[in-house]
Amino acid sequence: MRDLSNSFPPKKKFKNNRILRILVLVVVITVVIFFLKNFSVGDGFGGGSDVTLKDASFGLKPVMIGKTTVASGGVNLATQTITLTDIKYGGEARATATRSYGAGIYKLDVSATLPDPKNVAYEVWLTGADGPVPIDVMRGTKNSWSLNLSDSDKFSKYTGILISLERNKADSIVEERVMEGSF
User: Fold this and answer.
1) Among 5, 49, 60, 108, which is least packed by CB within 10 angstroms?
2) How many angstroms separate the most distant Cα atoms in the chain?
3) Nearest Cα to 82, choosing from 109, 61, 122?
4) Percentage, residues of the chain above pLDDT 70
5) Nearest 5°: CA angle at 50, between 47 and 53?
């Protein structure tokens, strides 16, 4: 009779235990990183914040901004919001523009629902007695477009606004008017 106990190769327990230990180590490291990123406080690694918000001190003194003195009430910015008129798409396009200015600053926010321009850009212009001034190309995708501008107050004298389709962004010529309005 033949002894069959020596004919089979020995079991590889060492290799299976090694793989199991590596998997457990990877899981432990992953859990530790997750907790550090999501639950640590103020160490700059994530989750926490080193910024503490608090009220301003009482008894603040007025400061000078240019030739304007800012009193205890602060500076009131003039704010105007308009709805632009669609002049290209037969009423499909919609846009609003809001501008705020005063104390030497100017902010312009334009939000529009316009058809996808396909390889051309929508550009915002301000218009006035000096003619149209290009501001910037709108950002967005598909039919949602916007522009946000914060600058020194060099645009408050312009009362008109328009959005155009621009094929050549390098020039300062309005190519194809899409929407327009006045503040």
Assistant:
1) 5
2) 113
3) 109
4) 76
5) 110
